[in-house]
Amino acid sequence: MACALEKINTFPNYHLHTSFSYRYSFAPPGYLETNTRFWEFKIESGITTYVRFGKKEPDGKLKERATQIQHHQSSEDARQFIEKMIDDKINAGYVGWAEW
Predict the structure, then answer these.
(1) Which top-level group of life is the source organism from (predicted)?
(2) Number of domains in the chain
(3) Per residue in 56-65, pLDDT tens?
């Protein structure tokens, strides 16, 4: 089974313009978007997932709706959780990048 992250279209010169990437130090990060919405994820310490999502304003700013923090039993559980969410977002029309 191919890793869900391999399906993501990449933006090689894209930089996150939000404070989310600076609030926590963890890897791997990822960002997916549509024309009007964004979805970011990060995994910290291998078992804690952070998911941030919201709307994209017409001026390009991101308006956060929520940040969800979830602790998993193992790093494999955290990875599977993120991979399933990525698949769901891609199926919903999101595109973006991830580092794995």
Answers:
(1) Eukaryota
(2) 1
(3) 999 988 899 9
| Helix or strand holding residue 21 (H, E) | helix 20-23
- Nearest in space to 3 (alpha carbons), one of 66, 57, 75, 80: 80
CATH number for the domain spanning 82: value is 2.20.140.10
Give the C-alpha separation, 39 to 75, whole Å: 21
Question: Is 44 a residue whose pLDDT tops 70?
Answer: yes
Q: Taking Cα atoms as reference points, which of 86, 4, 9, 12 lies closest to residue 49?
A: 86
Residue 82 sits in which domain range? 4-11+19-98
Q: How far is CA 60 from the centre of its chain?
A: 18
Report the distance separating Cα 29 and Cα 51, nearest Å: 10
The mean pLDDT of 24-53, rounded to a whole number, is 84
